[in-house]
Amino acid sequence: CTLLGLFLAVACFSWAKDQAIKTISIGALSHLLGVSVHIKKLSLNFFQQRIRIQHLVLGQPAGYQAKQLIQIPEIILQIDLFSLLKGQAHFPEVGLNLEEVVLIRNTEGVLNVDALKIAQTKTSEETENGEDHAQGLSKFYIEKLFLRINRIVYEDYSVEGKPKIKVYENVLAENIYEHISSPQKLVALVFVQAMKPAAVKRAGIYAAAALSGVGFIPVTAIGVMVGNDSAQIEVADSLEKAFNQIEQFLNESGKVKRFNADKTELWAKVNGHSIYVRFTQKGRKKTQVELSARRLMLAKPEIAAGLLYQFQQR
After folding, report:
1. What is the pLDDT of residues 52-107, one digit of tens each?
2. CA distance 309 to 314
3. Which of 177, 203, 176 lies closest to 192, judged by CA?
4. Which positions ≥6 away from 201 have C-beta within 8 Å?
5. Backbone angles phi, psi at 206, to 5 degrees
6. What number of other Cβ atoms are within 10 A of residue 171's Cβ?
7. C-alpha separations of 154 from 66, 118, 148, 208 in Å
8. What is the pTM of this model?
9. With contact defined as beta carbons under 8 Å apart, do 103 and 111 qualify?
10. C-alpha span between 130 and 274 (Å, rounded)
11. Is there a contact between 242 and 279 (Cβ–Cβ < 8 Å)?
């Protein structure tokens, strides 16, 4: 009886532990993405320091009535359990196997991934608060991510007549990505890779990915010229009007620090990045806007491109 009682106690503890982690995981994903989350089974192996998630399904955003957004048969997370005691989440390895991703462009031309919470434009206060949680490696860090995507379904209802539906099989063999330093970066990376086969252009998720630090956004997808250390666009307005619009946008996204007397140069701080903008009059109603972003003295052209893309979508 004693042995039976001990066995039952251990089994109950193990079940309760897994249920608790499952509930936390569902809540965190739902909060990050703003969609329903279903996990069939989750188990934590203390001795192997491994979490196994089976049959994770993400629902579509509100207004998209098709089937689920993503099906993931299995996720394997190798976790440093001691890091949890310090309030950190350190994963030496993560294996992510996506069975299917369903991309939908509705009749208004809005892509379902742009309706996700992560793709929404943030206010300055929200951005700064998010930066505090994602900054560095102290809170969340994946050393190595193994990502596989089997199928992409792309449904376009914005065209005339019947919707165009395309299916792409064997999309991504197991690719390895390193140094994922925030949950936002992980989610953005997955969606950027999923959208490549469908050649989806001008999607807001690209800007969110760039701002989260994903450094391989397809440049043609966001309509911004990107150089080695800056990005630029042409605005169909006078220099003064272009300056005022950029100044307002950067104050909404972060904080403008200063600008010169003739308003051809501007310095700002956005999401922990130092921003420099140069304005050049190209015609009576044509102004070139060149924006560079730096962090720890390193150029971040993908961040610059993401900011200009967000500005264009206003």
Report:
1. 999 999 989 888 876 789 999 999 999 888 877 777 788 999 999 999 988 888 88
2. 9
3. 203
4. 220, 221, 222, 223
5. -65, -40
6. 18
7. 12, 20, 18, 20
8. 0.60
9. yes
10. 17
11. yes
